[in-house]
Amino acid sequence: MDNNTGQKKGIKTILILAVILLLPGFLYFVLNKSGSNSYASLPIFGKKVVPGTTHRKWGRDIPDTIYHTVPPVDFVNFDGKKVHLLDNDTTLSVVHLMYSRDASLSRTMIKRLDQIANRFIQNKKVRLYSITVDTAYDTPEVLAKYAKVYKPWTKSWFFVTDPSVDIFKFAQESLLQDALVNKEGSKPFIIGSNYLLLDTKGRIRGIYDINVKTDVDRLEDEIKLLLVEEVRNHPATIEQKR
Predict the structure, then answer these.
(1) Structural domains of the chain ordered from first start
(2) Residue 227, strand partner residues
(3) Residue 156 contacts residue 25 (beta carbons within 8 Å)
(4) pLDDT band at 168, cuts 50/70/90?
(5) Is-contact 94 219, C-beta < 8 A?
């Protein structure tokens, strides 16, 4: 009985060691084959098209998808310098519509966005764009006076205008936001109440309503999440010494 008991314990010990040694490798193999290596990821907003082509990932053919993107646009900053929205494929963008003569919605959006600007003041990969729809009135000089209290020149924050841009078409078709001249009400324009978070490809990854109390906090959290996603998808290339 003693010998049998000892043999059984020995077999159990060997089996346990085998499981410990083989299980990690087996799980790694399964994850790679199934493609279930997953991370938290933000949605992509707007229309999408599946062209019928594929690309390979983790040894599997994945259908290609063409997503709605915001095209690069040239604006003029409050300091009179040109600003190229989405010209840099290494930075995230937070954009929203506003105009300086709006003392309610626009003013509130600017104040709340200042919190975000201050929290990411040291991170040059996050840029903020306050885009006026009142391009005839909001000259760079007007915007400079309007934005002075927020010291945007100390942050990656741009207050931009450009009468040559069809701002309403850009807002509606590219940003997917409400923007139109208000011919009946007391305010000259109607604008959307959202901040948009754009990734390095110009895709809309988050929409945050200023009227929802928790959305500004969610914007901060999801900027951080998207920064992690960008690092994961575009790891820095380490140059090896020859």
Answers:
(1) 69-233 (3.40.30.10)
(2) none
(3) no
(4) very high
(5) yes
How far is Cα of residue 217 from the mean position of the Cα atoms in its chain?
14
Tokens describing residue 205: 């990854």
Coil, strand, or helix at residue 63? strand
Is the predicted pLDDT of residue 29 greater than 80, yes or no? no
Q: What's the pTM value of the predicted model, to 2 decimals? A: 0.78
Written as six digits, the tokens of 200 are 């390095």
Cα–Cα distance for residue pair 45/48, rounded to 1 Å: 9
| DSSP codes joined into one string, 187-211 | SSEEE--EEEEE-TTSBEEEEEETT
Label residue 59 by pLDDT band (50, 70, 90).
low
Q: What is the DSSP string of 85-148?
A: ET--TT-EEEEEEE-TT-TTHHHHHHHHHHHHHHHTTT-TTEEEEEEES-TTT--HHHHHHHHG
What's the pLDDT at 207? 98
Residues in the chain: 242
